[in-house]
Amino acid sequence: MRLRVDLANPYDIDIGENVIEELNTYLKEFYPNSKILVISDDYLYKIHGEKLEKELHRFTFNKYILKNGEKSKSTGNLVDILEFAAENEYRRSDLVIAFGGGVVGDISGLFSSLYLRGLDFIMVPTTFLSAIDSSVGGKTAVNLKAGKNLCGAFYQPKKVFIDTNFLKTLSDYYFKDGLGEAIKYGMIRDRSIFDEISKEKVTKSYKNLPSIIKKCLNIKKDLVKEDEKDYGIRQILNYGHTFAHAIEIKSNFKISHGHAVALGMKIMVKYFYEDFYHGFVKVLKKYDLDYDIDFDTEEIIKICKVDKKSREDKINIIIVKKLGTCEILKIDFNDLRKIYENR
Ligand code: GLY
């Protein structure tokens, strides 16, 4: 199945089993003379690198392999990839392939936006989380010491290939990372996603997984079309994320993004949608997404202050009071403190 992200420079997302096998044909048609730079991570590349390289048959390519994990999304690695591209004489007509999860996608996208002021890049997300979120919409970034994604750019890919076979080799923990984000889409826009996850047992081999991915991406692409640069409505994609980013950092990234989003949403539900709290936590527990956290309030709020939805002494938060709908609310940091302390 195919979805189109309808921006000034539109692009397609192909979703399904074995869509990676269309890559070679795509490259021959659109980038016949390009040299390719594959950016990936060591864990993933060991498992699936061969499958990708088969599609690069007859193309000249180099690979830059990062260490798996959020810590690789660093300014240091960004500079190293830039130097690597220059040493290997990449030109503006060449192409970057981001092959991996969110870390690989985010740093590859930012690199592509910077190198020679812009190289084309395509995304091949290999995790559930990156398939339904970071591979689409053009947010690219690396982390700074003060917070996640603080150095970045909006830079859209030329094409996204979501091969659902890659998701089958995810560990349960990282599959559930994606469920955290899928639950978010259900909460903010489409309760059928939440209902399905809550009623069924959604696993890596769940037959309807491609349809859940499609529903999530339909929401995302519409929001990106309406507000590409995240000044307004796109911010609703950040439901639960203000606390989530702080939780990730305070856990030294032991709690990964989707799990932290689940905990961030739990805090928001407890404060703004109390009637639903019990039902919400039941779903989190079903997927091992519920943990007790005890990070110091002031340290959490300090991190929240550099959130990208923060302006002067206020911050936009996303609230859900009815399943499948949400609103943006501007509050001050004292109120944010109260919400965290109420958890
Ligand atoms: N991950 C949220 C967004 O793309 O806006």
What does this structure look like?
- This protein is of the alpha/beta class.
- It has two domains: 2-167, 3-Layer(aba) Sandwich (Rossmann fold); 176-342, Dehydroquinate synthase-like, alpha domain (Up-down Bundle), CATH 1.20.1090.
- The protein contains 14 helices and twelve strands.
- It has helices at residues 23-30, 42-55, 75-87, 102-114, 128-132, 164-167, 172-188, 191-199, 209-226, 241-250, 257-272, 274-286, 297-304, 333-341, and strands at 2-5, 11-16, 36-41, 61-66, 95-100, 120-125, 139-144, 147-154, 159-163, 310-311, 314-322, 325-332.
- A seven-stranded mixed sheet has the order 1-2-9-6-5-3-4, sandwiched between helices.
- It is globular, with a radius of gyration of 19 Å.
- Glycine is lined by residues 133, 137, 139, 230, 234, 237-238.
Characteristics:
343 residues; alpha/beta; Rossmann fold; Dehydroquinate synthase-like, alpha domain; 2 domains; 7-stranded mixed sheet; 3-stranded antiparallel sheet; 14 helices; binds glycine
